[in-house]
Design goal:
Layout lengths: L23 H14 L8 E2 L2 H8 L3 H14 L2 E4 L3 E4 L1 H4 L2 H5 L12 H4 L28 H14 L14 H14 L9 E4 L2 H12 L5 E6 L3 H10 L2 E8 L2 E2 L1 H7 L5 E4 L13 H14 L2 E5 L15 H5 L5 E6 L11 E4 L5 H10 L6 H12 L2 H27 L5 E2 L7 E5 L6 H10 L5 E2 L14 E5 L8 H17 L2
Parallel strand pairs: 5-6, 5-8, 8-9, 9-10
Antiparallel strand pairs: 1-3, 2-3, 4-11, 6-7, 10-11, 12-13, 13-15, 14-15
């Protein structure tokens, strides 16, 4: 086969570099790949014999031979018995299309569900070390040494089967330990086979929604409410309907009015996020009645109900449901220990176990076995109860320090709503304040407050203005300075209007 003669073949332009991290062989392979891709080396062109090319480039013949063999194996070149080495036709013929510039991506690319995920995201919290960052437990009180010893012991004694996929519902000893803990601490009566282990509460919400609803079904969501739960609902393809929350929690009558045919309600009755209110008994009973009437389910997010101050703990909604099977309970160790652990669980009725398990496995929401085994040891040996008692005392001190700092600031701009549970306080702002702008200014000063208005489900034209102030991971001595800075920022914003 004759080829077009060239005075200066392309390979004469190859310039190897000793500073290139690639070897000479890899540099030569890269050179020919590019030449073939951009069309400089066209289909059917015959390349010099390895001995000839090695002499021309001043390289060893072995280096050139190895480069040719790799390009042949990749399909860029073709060796013809007794005839030499050629650029493969099936690669060369596509060179023009490979190098043709593509149109720039549209700004609207991505799924419609993904484009709905706009606005503040509480899962992307401010720097953990910044004072008043909500959503964080006391990371300085995490039992690092104990956890390290337990995990180290597990790695030393585990056998190969322990590193397989494991039980599809989660590590059995962990589920047994959680069932015992829930019965004693939350009044939730269940057995290990009712528990499905998940990588956090948000994953649990997504798994349950996928298992219990179809695309387009309507779902009640608290408004304002936990934005991560709202995002999970959007990703699952359902229609999230914001239901009003007041001092008694979710307004069931508002829900019946807005979406009586909803298939699911996502609520946090023990400590509503972000308002911090506790759902009244009357509302709990009304919610259970609605679920019965509508043949619907309730997802109870019981994320930090262990921490309560100046009040008695409330019973979980799941405990009131009894054997009716309308409530799926969601718990998490992430808020009790550390968010980075990503460890949560579902408590589901007997008739839903199979479907929840299948969705959990089908969606890939598994938890590493080493984490599950360590957590089983931690919970089962009573360390979790000890940690909760110790941190509850710490949180009470930090909450008191925050309230004292607000009082000492002497400013009427921060009006704290009563919050008897959880790890954050909510402060309402004057009507002429913009909480989004205030939070941006606060974070510029390394103060991690969050805006209340960011937790209202769209469309919302009357979002309340307020600040979520987390005290769980904020040392008491950091409270006064942070509050004084916030008060100055509020005053600056008001005077600049």
């Amino acid at each position: 086969m004759k080829t077009r003669a060239t005075a200066y073949p392309i390979w004469t332009g190859f310039l190897p570099s000793q500073d290139d991290p690639l070897s000479l062989r890899e540099q030569l392979v890269r050179f020919f790949r590019r030449g073939i891709a951009d069309g400089t080396l066209q289909a059917g062109i015959r390349l010099p014999a390895s001995r000839v090319l090695a002499l021309e480039l001043g390289m060893s013949r072995m280096t050139v031979t190895d480069a040719y063999e790799q390009l042949i194996a990749e399909g860029f070149l073709q060796a013809r018995q007794g005839a030499g080495t050629y650029v493969a036709a099936r690669i060369g013929n596509k060179a023009q299309s490979l190098c043709t510039p593509v149109a720039p991506r549209q700004a609207t690319m991505g799924s419609a569900r993904a484009r709905l995920l706009v606005g503040p995201d509480s899962m992307s919290v401010a720097h953990a070390a910044w004072p008043l960052t909500p959503g964080l437990p006391a990371l300085d009180a995490f039992p690092y040494a104990l956890w390290g010893r337990l995990e180290g012991r597990i790695w030393r004694r585990r056998t190969p089967p322990d590193f397989s996929y494991g039980d599809p519902q989660g590590f059995l000893p962990l589920r047994e330990a959680l069932a015992e803990y829930l019965g004693a601490a939350r009044g939730v009566s269940c057995r290990s086979h009712n528990i499905v282990v998940t990588p956090g509460a948000q994953a649990a919400i997504l798994i349950a929604t996928l298992a219990l609803t179809d695309s387009g079904d309507r779902v009640w969501v608290e408004n304002p409410g936990y934005d991560a739960a709202y995002r999970s609902l959007l990703l699952s393809g359902v229609s999230a309907v914001g239901i009003r929350v007041d001092a008694e929690g979710l307004d069931v009558l508002d829900g019946r009015s807005r979406a009586p045919d909803a298939k699911l309600a996502v609520v946090s009755p023990s400590h509503q996020y972000p308002l911090g209110v506790t759902m009244s008994l009357a509302r709990r009973l009304a919610l259970l009645q609605w679920a019965h009437d509508a043949d619907a389910f309730i997802l109870e997010d019981d994320y930090d109900s262990e921490f309560h101050y100046d009040c008695a703990p409330t019973t979980a909604l799941k405990a009131l449901d009894g054997d009716n099977g309308r409530v799926i309970y969601i718990g998490t160790l992430s808020k009790l220990l550390a968010p980075g652990l990503r460890l949560g669980f579902l408590v589901v009725p007997d008739d839903l176990i199979d479907i929840l398990q299948k969705v959990r496995n089908g969606s890939g929401h598994r938890v590493p076995m080493s984490l599950q085994v360590t957590a089983a040891e931690f919970v089962g040996n009573g360390h979790l109860g000890t940690h909760i008692r110790r941190t509850k005392s710490l949180y009470a001190q930090r909450r008191s320090a925050l309230l004292s700092a607000i009082s000492a600031a002497g400013s009427g701009d921060l009006s704290v709503l009563t919050a008897t549970t959880g790890l954050h306080l909510l402060a309402e702002l004057p009507d002429d304040c913009d909480d989004q702008a205030l939070v941006a200014a606060a974070r510029a000063q390394q103060i991690g407050v969050a805006p209340l208005s960011g937790f209202f489900a769209p469309p919302c034209t009357s979002a309340r203005q307020g600040l979520l102030m987390g005290f769980g991971n904020t040392p008491a001595e950091s409270m006064p300075g942070a509050i004084q800075t916030l008060c100055r920022l509020i005053e600056t914003q008001r005077t600049s209007r």
